[in-house]
Each structure stands twice: as structure tokens, then as C-alpha cells.
Amino acid sequence: MTVTTTPTLEGQPIKEYLGIVTGEVIVGANLFRDLFANIRDIVGGRSGSYERILRDAREQAIQELQAECGAMGGNAVVGIDLDYEVIGDKGSMLMVSASGTAVKV
């Protein structure tokens, strides 16, 4: 299934707009991962553990969006928007949400 942030698919006319689809993933922060991320912040460098969590959460949100599109009879999602929010007590959780328009091409 094609997913894109653009409003159209070049060379593939949209035959039908099916509606908005979404995918949301909320992940909790891990105490030990936080500790090591803070150490990296002090000494410099990137936090590979957080980067993996962000990547995995984004991929899961897009998969949910694709599943919802498929259930509606669509075969592509256009205009995808990705949002990241820190939520929960003291920012202990991360929410990744993806939304777009399900279409038939």
C-alpha cells in the first residue's frame, strides 16, 4: 500500500476519497533507558535507544493507519501527517500519531 505525505500520487489518479484514517501508538519510557540517555546527554552523542523507540512507534502508527485504510477498501493513504507528543505524569510516555486520507487509486 502506498503511503505519502503528498496530497496526490503522481501518475496515479485518485478515483475515490474514503475518509480520514489514523494510527496512534503510546509507549512508556523505561527507567534504565532514561538513565543511559541522560548520561549520553551529559557526555554528548545520540541516544540510539530513543531513536529506535521513535522509529518503531512511527512504523506501528503507519501500520495501523494502513490497516484502517484497507478495512475501508482503500489502497493508498495520502496527506499523511505525523505528530509526536510527550504525555503522562512528568512526560513519562510518548505518543506518536499518524493521520491521512484513505483513497482508491
From TrEMBL:
This is UPF0145 protein GRI65_10140. Belongs to the UPF0145 family. The lineage of its organism: Bacteria, Pseudomonadati, Pseudomonadota, Alphaproteobacteria, Sphingomonadales.
